[in-house]
């Protein structure tokens, strides 16, 4: 901590913060500070893809959040993983590269009144940092890629960027059979989920490189930022609150942050001439917590905890959205009841584990290279919908929860989530102490629409599994389980069963949402404007998944990178 005054202060060295640090420190005339509450990403299980099992629930890499007991989950509370390490959640997530649907971004543009958030306008920002394996003419596996010569490839994908998008290094017979069953149920095959319409079934593409996890610390911090004398990184440094002074225009101006280093409070400041900016990239949980601790949030909440108010912003910590995955488990016997039909039995012996380890050591392939989910599918819960509203994450394994042991029988898991939930939750501080985790209340399945989709999604799952392609595996529903009367269950029964087995798929967004902040159509719950400036103050912006007004129709890591890329360009233009 050789200096404490910087032109840009970025809080959170996760998905968005790492990219922003890279882009902003490229200007050698600007001093950039990146602050991360977690440690460096030197834990070996971060980089071995299957290591997410050792990172989730581990205080070395995870904030260890828990939700409040949830009525929609029949009173259950959930573990709520968030990355606390360089790379943030990109160091512990499922590595799936997924942009969502074009309609998602067109809706953002409508809600913000800014067409720069429409699909056509954000697509170049996805491509800017992308390094897609199919676009590499000399790539080791490019010759095997069915779209290698697709003339439309360059219209949707980029090459040569920092963010590697690779194909998975394994296949499973039972997953191939599920894909065929999905097609028999009317879901078309696809080789690319990322062209604006992700309907179809196929293997996910992943953020890996040479069989290793590719997190944002590798992609954007090393080696570029570390070699720049104008860049500084503080790790194991937790922001306790932001600092504000009266601005020249009468609005509060953010002038820096207080940071707890583990043994003392250090103040990181922006220039006194008012030219600098502080950017919050602490995520959908961390960012609203920091704002509320700093006096920006719902007035009654701040008063309750004795936090002096800087700006009454009722939307801070509201509008929490997440994808709730309903984890249906099917026992299988296979054409032959053999060891290795699924990971459950492949890894249940010392010899099986040794084979898995040798395959990874020699070829960087096999189960140790696995993302948590390998096969994906997007479809509709009912035929009348105009776009897919369900996403499947299908896995050749089963367990009670991530971090728990695999079951002792062969099984696959077909997790299905509602991509456009209408339920909304909250993130609220419990006290004025920065050390205390906030109260997270997702309020899953709290609307009739979400309960209806939950019931319909279980029926869609059963319809897929009943197709001829899976018949040789003799699938038997273990969770939620069929009643003695058979599969004819009411919507209410199915929604209750979904509440018994559903869990987060780790996509919290929306807690500091973008929206119109001026004019007759202003949204009183909007926290940032279309340029990500925090409402009612100056010198402060937000760039993380919390600014999404509506959750994207898919995994949320890639959209968060796009948001950071857009803000980086805005800031560079502003500096010029």
TrEMBL record:
Sorted UniProt keywords: FAD, Flavoprotein
Pfam families for the chain: GMC_oxred_C, GMC_oxred_N
Cofactor(s) of this protein: FAD
Gene Ontology molecular function, alphabetical: flavin adenine dinucleotide binding; oxidoreductase activity, acting on CH-OH group of donors
Species whose genome carries this gene: Hylemonella gracilis ATCC 19624
Domain Glucose-methanol-choline oxidoreductase N-terminal, chain residue ranges per copy: 83-106, 283-297
SUPFAM superfamilies documented for this protein: FAD-linked reductases, C-terminal domain, FAD/NAD(P)-binding domain
Family per record: Belongs to the GMC oxidoreductase family.
The name this protein goes by in its record: Glucose-methanol-choline oxidoreductase
Keyword Magnesium carried by entry: no
Domain of life according to the entry: Bacteria
Matches recorded under PROSITE patterns: GMC_OXRED_1, GMC_OXRED_2
Keyword Flavoprotein among UniProt keywords: yes
Protein residues bound to FAD: 85, 239
